[in-house]
Design goal:
Elements lengths: L7 E7 L5 H10 L6 E7 L6 E5 L2 E5 L1 H4 L2 E5 L7
Antiparallel strand pairs: 1-2, 1-5, 2-3, 3-4
Pfam families: FeoA
Keywords: Iron
Protein name: FeoA domain-containing protein
């Protein structure tokens, strides 16, 4: 899965090893199955990523982004 700036992804779920506390935090911020996230940009050294969900931007580390199960919007990666 190639996640790059300018792409949109739909959250389909979460990795099984995601802590309960962190999953609650993500849920409270709107990171729920079915939500669409936009990858806005990555920091100069590649971590963290700025993601936008429901008109709000957040910074997520690559390790946190990896905890999300994602599928590309519009059928293709980089769509």
């Amino acid at each position: 899965m190639l996640i790059k700036p300018g792409t949109q992804w739909r959250i389909t779920g979460f990795q099984s090893d995601l802590s309960r506390l962190f999953s609650r935090k993500l849920f409270s911020l709107g990171f729920v199955p079915g939500a669409v996230i936009d990858i806005v940009r990555f920091a100069p050294l590649g971590d963290p990523a700025e993601v936008r969900i429901r008109h709000t931007s957040y910074a997520l580390r690559k390790s946190e982004l990896a905890m999300l199960r994602l599928e590309p919007v519009n059928g293709g990666e980089g769509a």
